[in-house]
Amino acid sequence: MIRPSSEIRSATPGEMPHAVAAIVAAFLTDPLARFAWPSPHDHLRALWLPPGVHPNGEALERVLRDTAMPAHLDDLLAIFEQMEHSHPEEPHWYLPLIGVEPNAQGA
What we know:
The chain is mainly alpha-helical and about 110 residues long. It has 6 helices and no strands. The two termini are about 15 Å apart.
């Protein structure tokens, strides 16, 4: 079996569609993501930020209010508020590091 390189680097512009697709696919069954956006269409509109780019809290709250299930909104806002308090200061890719492409899950 040929093992992929374990080198960590930024995706090139030509690799970006494949990288984004793998990340999105990795979270198709993520409990928190699917709690917020149980509809596949809504989930696929999600976006993750690269290292050094910090979320705009007001914009994120607007997205949640506009797209998340209304019955889950209070819980989601509370979760994101708690996450803000324990968010790492150093540059990081939080979700992509733990995401596993579905065809490799359980392998």
